[in-house]
Design goal:
With 350 residues, the chain is an alpha+beta fold. The chain has nine helices and ten strands. The strands form three sheets. It has a six-stranded antiparallel beta sheet. The protein has a two-stranded antiparallel sheet with strand order 7-10. Strands 8-9 form a two-stranded antiparallel ribbon. InterPro entries: ACAD10-like, ACAD10_11_N, Aminoglycoside_PTrfase, Kinase-like_dom_sf.
Length: 350
């Protein structure tokens, strides 16, 4: 979370004086002094701001401006999830306060702990040394953090009501196919065949764990000096309980390799020293003790999900909802991901 950017015009649409008054009421121990606000680099989901008052820091999360679909961007659910997860998995930020008062802000929001460290996205921090040195350490860190999260007893943590494990993968697969077709633009070779295979081979949950649902390197915070030490795991918006291998498949899809075609996202793991996807799976199996013999299904679905995410963005660009030329060629990345998913199910990727 060290990549905070200066205020944008959109931050002016929030009355930060009202927010500060609310926070001082709700958190009487805040220090004196002016509250400063910086927006983190903006994605296409929730908006995130760094708040600072004296030596106190917090992070505010809220939905995007404008109309949003019903049930989307549920800040209250994310806040409640963190209330349950943080005590048993301290890498999840501690949630401080939730607000849904329209007099304070146009959308509901919550404020949480600011995790200290580095987020690795486009570049490897120089302090970590060369990719050959840091790559294996970071790779093992990502895997061990995921295994640690999945080892938590979700029932003891009070999370049994935060999802429906029965039929989890079936809902995931059918839901993402529906989302993809809602925003479909181009005819892509192999798409129908892939969707038929995904639907016909849905695995049944043999185990239920916490599922982060967006577990990837740039959603982790890593110690500023030690690349082998995680200090935070971010973005719990989609978290639930379900099949642990679904998180592995998604993480692997984002874990790009040098020989991959363009898949439309920033890739650090393609540098020398980082584990290959195959080495990632082997280390995960070793640390978790889980049977990964069906991992090709989960990776193929991970590629399909990522294709669906990019397709939704491309659809909005093509319809003029987003004016950003970076997205002009996202349809090519979508086609590449569909091809990678088909190659995965044929056993050609891992």
């Amino acid at each position: 979370m060290s990549d905070a950017t200066p205020r944008t015009k959109k931050t002016q649409e929030v009355d930060w004086e009202k927010v500060e008054r609310f926070l001082r009421n709700a958190m009487p121990d805040l220090p004196e002094g002016e509250m400063t606000v910086r927006q983190f680099s903006e994605g296409y989901s929730n908006l995130t701001y760094l708040l600072q008052i004296g030596d106190w820091e917090g992070v505010l999360r809220r939905p995007p401006f404008g109309e949003i679909p019903p049930k989307a961007h549920d800040m209250e659910r994310e806040f409640k999830m963190l209330e349950k997860v943080h005590p048993v998995f301290p890498l999840a930020p501690e949630p401080y306060v939730y607000c849904e008062d329209p007099e304070v802000m146009d959308k509901h929001f919550y404020v949480m702990e600011k995790k200290q460290g580095l987020v690795i996205d486009e570049e490897l921090p120089e302090v970590y040394g060369s990719p050959e040195q840091a790559g294996p350490i970071i790779s093992k860190n990502v895997i061990s953090t995921l295994v640690q999260l999945q080892a938590i007893d979700y029932k003891e943590a009070g999370l049994a009501d935060m999802g429906k494990p029965e039929g989890f993968m079936e809902r995931q697969v059918k839901g993402w196919i529906k989302r993809y077709h809602h925003s479909k633009t181009d005819d892509i070779e192999g798409l129908e065949e892939l969707e038929q295979w995904l639907t016909a081979n849905i695995p049944v949950n043999e185990e239920t764990t916490i599922v982060h649902n967006d577990f990837k390197l740039n959603n982790m915070v890593i110690d500023e000096e030690n690349p082998g030490l995680a200090t935070g795991v971010l973005d719990w918006e989609l978290s639930t309980i379900g099949d642990p291998l679904s998180d592995v498949g998604s993480t692997l899809a984002y874990w790009g390799q040098a020989e991959d075609a363009d898949i439309g996202i920033n890739i650090i793991s393609s540098q020398p020293g980082f584990y290959s996807r195959k080495e990632f799976v082997e280390e995960y199996a070793k640390q978790s003790g889980r049977d990964v013999s069906n991992i090709n299904y989960y990776l193929a679905f991970g590629f399909y999900k990522l294709a669906g995410i990019l397709q939704q963005i491309y659809y909005r660009w093509k319809n003029g909802e987003i004016e950003d030329e970076r997205f002009r060629h996202l349809n090519k990345a979508v086609a590449n991901l569909i091809d990678m998913a088909n190659r995965t199910r044929r056993g050609e990727v891992l």
